[in-house]
Amino acid sequence: MNEFAFKGILQKEGWVDNVIVKTDDHGIILSINSEVESSMNYKGFALPGFQNAHSHAFQYAMAGLAELHSVAPGQNDFWSWRNSMYRLALHISPKQLEDIAAMLYKEMLRNGYTHVAEFHYLHHDQQGNHYTQLSEMSERLMAAAQTAGIKITLVPIYYEKGGFGKDAEKEQCRFISKSFEDYMKLFEACEKSALNYDHANVGYGIHSLRAVEFENIIQLCEVKNKNTPLHIHVSEQLKEIEECLAHSGQRPIEWFANHVNLDENFHLVHATHLIDKEIEQITQAGSNVVLCPSTEGNLGDGLFPLSKFLNKNGNWSIGTDSHIGINPLEEIRILDYGQRLITHSRNTFGNTNSGDNGQIAIESALVNGRKSMGNDQKEFFEIGKPLDGLIIMDNHPLIQTCSQKNRTNTMVYATDSSMNLGTIVNGQWIIKKGSHLNENIDSNFIKTMNNLKVR
Predict the structure, then answer these.
(1) C-alpha pair distances (Å), 411 with each of 291, 302, 316, 358, 434
(2) Residue-wise pLDDT tens digits, 317-351
(3) Separation CA 16–CA 269 (nearest Å)
(4) Which domains does the chain have, with CATH numbers?
(5) What are the catalytic residues?
(6) Residue 140: how many other CB atoms lie within 10 Å
């Protein structure tokens, strides 16, 4: 049994100060007690561990490398960035993927993420052939997560087309499942592999409407386990919407809602360009949108219509996608400030019950993020559940002098990772004062990047 003495923990109802949390040997919370006599030194303020609901781990290797822009018109958008990503994807070996992912996951932990949904489509070898073990690349990601100490929901992605009505391109050969049966074999292999790793599970994934035949999308949504999350990129780019309209006569969300029984287990990534009808369709179904503000800003995707979405009580979570940014509080800030710039209002997340933007944002990112991992837990810290948390310094002058009512918003809007005391996963300090227990993660990553020669 372990004991933790926190200056405060953030719960759904607000802050509880001077708390002793006891866990068993597996990190499961046995008790949460406040204002008790203790010889322990109360230290740090605990936020619940953040959920990263959308990650492409291999893209961390190219973070910052797509910013030397062509001066030719029309050459600096998502589609030109995608070409750079394809060039990287064609060269990474299984061992290199594992090293890159372990480094990324360590950085996620350092910034307060304790669980990641890995939207994974780098399935095959450099020629597009299956590995002897179908789940080879997926298993490398689960191994990396275990090395780093983060929980992982592996989302093997169904990807079979190069666009609406188009065959796959040569650069996409590592991504492709040639049929519905091929994808299901891959999914089942990933499920089997996940049994070998602690704190790993598997969700369904469709790359996008443009990347899978419509009849196969319908079939997957019909046969999938009802309570298992399904992730899909949708409506990220205006070009995608135009092509979907030309191909089907419907916008992406419109087609999806008309052909699939959307529910709370669907996680729609980006969903940047929505019309009012599509917002209504998503919110009525109770589906979740996964917003990745740092990547969406970096790629020039556009701004999600959050104000209209929240007016319909829409559910949202956050992810870091291409990992140009890896700080959950930064994702929340970018999301908020983008909305303030177009609405001219500062109460982005507030509702009729509360204008406490930081508290509301953390709850949405946490609860809906957990749902994207297949976890229905709604309480922040709960007896019988694992102790996962980002611990903020209590002795930083900005935090130390802060009243309880302003504490959450100070952390969300006015801190950076230098104020993090550490990150706890399953009742263990994985990161403490910025350092990880495994020193080999950095050196393995450096060796891999030097061998790849992409930076």
Answers:
(1) 20, 27, 20, 8, 17
(2) 999 999 999 999 999 999 999 999 999 999 999 87
(3) 34
(4) 2-48+385-436 (2.30.40.10), 50-372 (3.20.20.140)
(5) 270, 321
(6) 25
